[in-house]
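tool_log.txt
---
The assistant was asked to compare two proteins side by side. It first ran the structure predictor on the initial sequence, then on the second. Raw inputs and outputs are pasted verbatim so the downstream comparison step can read them without reformatting.
(1)
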Amino acid sequence: MGLLTENTDFFGLDIGTSSIRLVQLKGTGGVRSLVKYALAPIDTKIALSDAPADQQKLAAVIKDLINQAKPSTRNVAVGLPTNKVFTTIVDIDKLSAGELAKTIEPQADTLIPTPIDESKIDWSVLGPSPVDPNKVEVLLASIPNEYIEKRLDMLEGLDLNVVAFEPDSLAMARGVIPADVTTPILTVDMGNLSTDIVITYGGGPRLIRSIPTGTDAIIKSAIQNLNIDEKQAEQFVYKFGLSKDKLEGQINNAIIGTVDVLVSEIEKSIKYYQSRYPDVPLDRIIVIGGASVLPEFPLYLANKFAINVEIGNSWCNVAFPSSKQNELLAVSNHFAVAAGLAERNP
């Protein structure tokens, strides 16, 4: 998804809610070589604000990050927050590419939540429909023009040439799924404010969701249920997580209700996938972000769904010197989206 020009030299830019990340790769094919990577923290209030003064502060952080990283190009592929992008998978009659394009816009008007003339729409044919042999599966995405235009203005003001916009969720899945894997995989990326869930199969997304439960909600549960301050709650959550044998299971008891809100949404996603693709079971779950560092959360998912759960590696499709391995694995948790953007095929 997303429009990409003929430029083969570009870097990925992930504008998150707590930090900005940049990754530049070189080469083509399944595994590319790391050129640059960099991260700059940002105040969440600034990242989420539409106020012109805050947008200027955001632009200044991005500018400083680029000056620090010194990528060899001004071409950039940029992530879009999954909760800003409406995505759906629809079954459409098998048609030629030209006829399909004419058919999709009228259908999109009935499917997307914003007026079609105020939205940027993109679509991609995934393959034959699993429910009707006379139809094809189409991934449809839309985002309000106003959001795209503001982001484009800010980036062009930094003398950047945006060659692609892509939902964070799609980039994240590309970043943590090995390029040669085509089996069905569910990826879970837990951020501060929300969790992205993506199911991919045969190299294409089959389900994309953003759940408004993230690490902040889990930490708030610890604050409220244990009557402790934020800093202490954060320490406890990331040290003990869902462990039942540490601190007599108090942290588990305090946060399990919020965790289960998220897990129930993961369960709904799995059931939807299984109903649509009953003959192609999920192969594994890959967790990244907060989902990979919350103690015993991966094990909790594995036990709940009887599926193998792996910690995501943002560099699984990236070649780098062995001397950099420890350094890169230490920050892998932060770079799935930026790496996935940099791995886009031109």
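(2)
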Amino acid sequence: MANHNLKNKKGWVELITGCMFAGKTDEFIRRINTFTYAGFNVFVFKPAIDKRYSEAEIVSHAGAKLKAIAVSSSNEIEKIVVDTKEKIDVIGIDEVQFIDTNIVNLIEEFANRGIIVVVNGLDKDFKSDPFQNVDKILVQAEYVKKLSAICHECGGNANRTQRIVNGKPARKDEPIILVSGNDHYEARCRHCYIKPE
């Protein structure tokens, strides 16, 4: 992310994005911790649907952890923010693609009110189509950090997520959001990625 002059007007959006296994969550946690260490009052949210490692923490694949408030909708985030008596300097939202589409407008409102919003999410789904919310936040964010991974197949630069079901690439009629199940994901480069059929 760019260096910010915090004496200027506050209120902007930072987006951390890329494919799976690119280190998005580690970067998100690092960024949130930077604001916390500086004495900012930070509220962090995660989608309740994401229970892979913890219900009350954001946990990266590498094991970094950050306490978070699990929410089921953007309305819950708005209610918590409106109801708090504390001044909120920074709002962090993990896995924003798993939250309803109203989150996009809410993020914009928060930034316009002088809150720094740091958002993390996948840029593309397993079909390599733009993921909901992230595609819209991309154009409103002041700062975007796009990360890549290492291709599981060839070791090249990966920017796509391959969903594997029973040892084969998922079919295109599989649900877009599937946080758990008998499948797994791999980072793939453009040449090793297999478009679902």
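---
observation on (2): The radius of gyration is 17 Å. The first strand starts at residue 12 and ends at 18.
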